[in-house]
Amino acid sequence: MRTTLFSLLLTFTFALGSAHTTVLDPPTAVKVVEVDFPIFKDKDFKIIYLDFELLTTNVKSLQIIKNKSNIAFTDDVSKVSVDGIYEIDYSEYSAGQYDLELLTYTGERLRSTFVIE
Hints:
This protein is an alpha+beta fold. The chain has one domain: Immunoglobulin-like. It contains 1 helix and 8 strands, in the order H-E-E-E-E-E-E-E-E. It is globular, with a radius of gyration of 22 Å. The termini are far apart.
């Protein structure tokens, strides 16, 4: 009797779990091409992460440039701590190639690229 009750409970639990479906957005392919610094992606949440601790110099500002000509985003990152993580939400970005440029205090421009397909 106990095993039958347990079997019924187990079957009912799995039946409920399999009946639940999740609707997801269509997948967005993001390709990262690291040039001067590493960037990390989370395709589930459509976020790109920039780890300031991995940079070899202090950064003053950040720009995201689409297709080598249009500035899509700019930010003053001078107050981000040297061991901070900077998040970029790309969920609203259209398909294309984006250059992530960092301007240092010495005038150097560091660049890495990500492509949204």
